[in-house]
Amino acid sequence: MTRAPVKPEMLRWAIERARVSPDDLSARFKKLEEWLQGEGQPTLKQLDAFANAVHVPVGYLFLPEPPEERSPIPDFRTFAGRTLARPSPNLLEMIYACQERQSWYADFARLYQEPELRFVGSATLDTSPEVVAARIRQALGFSIEERCDCATWTDALRLFIRRADDAGILVMVSGIVFSNTNRRLDVEEFRGFALVDRRAPLVFINGTDSKAAQMFTLAHELAHIWLGTSALSNASAQPAGGFRREEVWCNKVAAELLVPLDAVRAELQQNEPLADTLRRLARQFKVSTLVVLRRLLDAGHLTRPQFDAAWQDELDHIREISQGASGGGNFYRTTLSRVSHRFTKALVVSTLEGQTLYRDAFRMLGVKKTETFNNLGREVGVMM
Predict the structure, then answer these.
(1) How far is CA 162 from CA 145, 159, 295, in A?
(2) 83 and 140 in one domain?
(3) R_g of the chain computed on alpha carbons
(4) Do 224 and 99 belong to one domain?
(5) Is 228 helix (H, G, I), strand (E, B) or coil?
(6) Alpha-helix runs per DSSP H in the chain
(7) Strand pairing of 78-79 and 82-83?
(8) CB-based burial of residue 151 (10 Å sphere; 0-12 exposed, 13-18 middle, 19+ buried)?
(9) Both 179 and 140 in a single domain?
(10) Closest CA to 172 of 144, 148, 204, 199
(11) In angstroms, rounded to a whole number, what is the distance separating the alpha carbons of residues 24 and 104?
(12) Reported confidence tier of residue 82, pLDDT bands at 50, 70, 90
């Protein structure tokens, strides 16, 4: 029986990298403690199973020391003014998957002579956030009135995504890695990222966040598309310090896009309790109460101490009501949300025409059965 000559420190690194406890793995790998102490070594089969369990390429485990893994795109995430630690395997895999999808779609767009999108990279950090917000609203045809008419935040988010898709932007929303429900994406780690390309700009949104919060993330990442900068973000609506200039600018664009300052001022009512104002404006603009708080501060309706106290209260309230939130819903709608309507339609067309292998299409869509693929084709209007 062939044993794998791996160092205990590489096994410990892989466990730490996967952000799991050795105790959680010991039930599956009975001799894990011996491996970690250097008192034994796994077989090749056991090592392969271990690598799958901790989501690490098995070849990494034979290295003399852990590799330095960094985000393949600019990482703008911060916490208390400090850059965050290395990205998790779940996050890295989603970035790599989206890069593959983007590369494929860019080639598809060139083949079918789709024009470059003029708005990509059309702004700079010196461009007024108010001006850029107006340009985004115009390019997407995403009026405030139409959004306010949506019955729910979910409806407003779907409309927002659909308008971005119609404008040529691939918007992908998922709370898990591919279709693996055991690999949830951590909203505390990241909220979204943007991948810039003239023909295939892509925005990924962490679907574990609330629908209202996803609205802000999408607006924030769209600002990155207009700026022409790929980026990994965890910024919220809070006007806090410690973020890079790009993130502060994108936050301002997002806030103005979703809740224009003039519209906020026009809606303020004298002597209305703050809690009532928050709920009313959040329902009206279909954003989170945190975004409304940010705009009330921007409008001078709150002092900074009042804002800071209210912000913490709202965070606590949101955490409380988010406990026990469940997923579910229509399978095909969920799948289209994860990979975008525009991307799915193009991929199905290319596959049916023989330009793309079914194997590659299944991988990029995250499906395993031909029947599922065909049903997705029907959902996007390609197949009857």
Answers:
(1) 16, 5, 25
(2) yes
(3) 23
(4) yes
(5) coil
(6) 8-18, 22-26, 32-37, 44-53, 89-111, 129-140, 144-148, 153-166, 211-227, 245-258, 261-267, 274-285, 289-298, 304-322, 331-339, 341-352, 358-365, 370-379
(7) antiparallel
(8) exposed
(9) yes
(10) 204
(11) 38
(12) low
**CB contact burial 38-70 (16+ within 10 A = b; e otherwise):** eeebbeeebbeebbebbbbebebbeeeebeeee
Query: Which of the listed residues 322, 346, 368 is the one where a domain comes to its end?
Result: 322
Provide the pLDDT for residue 2.
80
Residues 132 and 19 in one domain: no
pLDDT at 77: 81
Q: Kindly state the average pLDDT of the residues 253-273.
A: 95
Give the whole-number percent of the chain exceeding pLDDT 90.
70
- Contact assessment for residue 220 and residue 209, using Cβ atoms and an 8 Å cutoff: no
Q: Looking at this protein, which amino acid is placed at residue 79?
A: F
Is 134 domain-assigned? yes
Cα distances (Å, whole numbers) of residue 106 to 48, 119, 163, 168, 194 = 35, 16, 20, 11, 15
Q: Report pLDDT for 333.
A: 84
The three-class DSSP label of residue 125 is coil
Measured CA to CA, the distance from residue 381 to residue 367 in angstroms comes to 18
Are 299 and 369 in the same domain? Answer: no
- CATH number assigned to the domain comprising residue 36: 1.10.260
Residue 205: φ, ψ to 5°: -120, 130
* Domain containing residue 343: 333-379
Q: How confident is the model at residue 279 (pLDDT cuts 50, 70, 90)?
A: very high
pLDDT digits over 208-239, tens only? 998 989 999 999 999 999 999 999 988 777 77
